[in-house]
Amino acid sequence: MGKENQTYLTEFILLGLSSDQHTQVLLFVVFLIIYLLTVSGNLLIIVLVNADSRLHTPMYFFLKNLSFADLCFSTSIVPQMLLHFLVMRKTISFARCSIQMVFFLVAAATESSLLAVMSYDRYVAVCKPLHYSTIMTQRSCVQLAVVSWVSGAFVCLVDATFTLCLPYQGRNVINHYFCEPPALLKLASTDTYKAEMALFSMGVVILLAHVSLILVSYYNILSTVLRMQSGEGRFKVFFTCGSHLTVVIFYYGSTIFTYMRPNSKKMNEGDKVISVFYSVITSMMNPFIYSLRNKDVKAAFRKAFGRQ
């Protein structure tokens, strides 16, 4: 018995979103549609930005990076979810669990950085239009994108190291639909205080700092808009800012709820539903909110597919 207790786990069982068979079939259809929309929407953005010279601007450069991050984000989670909706035994090896966690963390942290960078880009465009071309140069845009991806890799390194280096023995049932650090920590067979503090610290750096930058940027944008004489221009910026802030609330609100609170030993159904917002829904919403309603993107689409 003592020898068995010292054996480290080689696989986990994911409970998923529901144990009811009929509900799982319904969820399979829903998440398949969401995934297809996510992949097609984000791939379309990447293709159009690369193909149309009119979209070779800082805003669309960052949107292309965001779309790629969303593809990585969604693909690291949803295909496995779809498979598990169709099988009885929802297992994942420790190695696959680790790989999924790494891709998820890199994509999630990078997306957080890119959303903050994009809010800064909009701030410069609206509040400092005469200096926009000198501030948002090609060099500075590339540097900001590189910093976003490097920061994502750094957060991943810290979170994954503190989570995966803990011993996991005995219980192997994860009450979640993918291998996320807070869910995995609940199975650790040792004290998780240091790992929890590491996740919290990275949350402060990558979440709260970025939310603060976004809120300051949009506050300045709205202050500038209120001084505009044109009612049409004011409405356009308000409409755009409102859409962007919707994504911010969905993404950061649900992520902060998960990563910035004490780690309880049980994960309830509400926690899993909240995780769906930042791990699945926002990757589908981003292309439609940030790009596909834009007249420049619509013009690029018509040009690319021969529709005048």
Automatic annotation (TrEMBL):
Q: What is its main location?
A: membrane
Q: Which CDD domains match?
A: 7tmA_OR10A-like
Domain (G-protein coupled receptors family 1 profile) ranges: 41-290
Where is this protein found? Cell membrane
Chain ranges passing through the membrane: 25-49, 61-87, 99-120, 141-162, 197-221, 233-253, 273-292
Q: Which domain of life is it from?
A: Eukaryota
Membrane topology field: Multi-pass membrane protein
Which molecular function terms from Gene Ontology are attached? G protein-coupled receptor activity; olfactory receptor activity
Instruction: Name the keywords, alphabetized.
Output: Cell membrane, G-protein coupled receptor, Membrane, Olfaction, Receptor, Sensory transduction, Transducer, Transmembrane, Transmembrane helix
Its GO CC terms are:
plasma membrane
Family listed: Belongs to the G-protein coupled receptor 1 family.
The protein, known as: Olfactory receptor
**Originating organism:** Loxodonta africana
